[in-house]
Amino acid sequence: MEWLETSTENCPVQLTLGVVGEKWTLLILRDACNGVRRFDEFRRHIGLSDAVLSDRLRKLTDAGILRTVPYQEPGSRARHEYRVTRKGWDLWPVLVALKQWGETHMGDGDGPVLDLRHEECGTPVRVVVECERGHTALSPEQVTAKPGPGARPHAA
Amino acid sequence: MEWLETSTENCPVQLTLGVVGEKWTLLILRDACNGVRRFDEFRRHIGLSDAVLSDRLRKLTDAGILRTVPYQEPGSRARHEYRVTRKGWDLWPVLVALKQWGETHMGDGDGPVLDLRHEECGTPVRVVVECERGHTALSPEQVTAKPGPGARPHAA
Question: Is A154 on the interface with B (CB under 8 A)?
């Protein structure tokens, strides 16, 4: 089976984009990964409408990428804030990869907006593709792509 | 400067999503990375309308992620097909990271739809975050994130 004869219905890229394949969703997750927790903070920082923010937060929570934690400020009603789940943190490489491309191809030369470093040794981090034997920073030319056991025939 | 006080305007994640932060765009790129080149092939395989496909192909070409190459079938008018540029291939880790999350969290247990392997040693590949000293498969907890030299104050 070749790629064009492979169904896209269970393609994991497509399934993932069905959940986070929308700009605001990933920007909310970016902020949540950077410690933003509260509705008003997301709204002010990202600059999106209440309606869109509510909708995307609900989608992220329904998908198990964010979870809600109740809090109450003195004199205010009970509210909830948002935390990134383990499942949500599993999307962190996607964010780092998007950041890397933007810095490479759309940067203004001022250096990183967000400086990510390995805490232990203090050096900058990057996303790479590596194999099980530890060969790292593989290029697409070094990687073969063939329909695997999960591939199904395209309906067409 | 803390994250909430940092402008999102020049955030590289946001700039990148301004180009590819839409589901169809990334699905077209996925197909192009798998060797799909022609308009009708994209349309049939992905199952999207002519109008959306034309628009997204134009955006990807304008952004320098795809480039057009003319071809002509006997008896047909000249057309062009699409190839992934170097800049486009730089988004490959984003696609592999999206694939990985989908396989981990939305897979049906049948195994990978697309089997990516290091050609040289034959083992499966994955996306990881590594540091300059080669410490690999870093978790978010092992990585510090601080506004860097490119950070600008948020206009609020």
Answer: yes
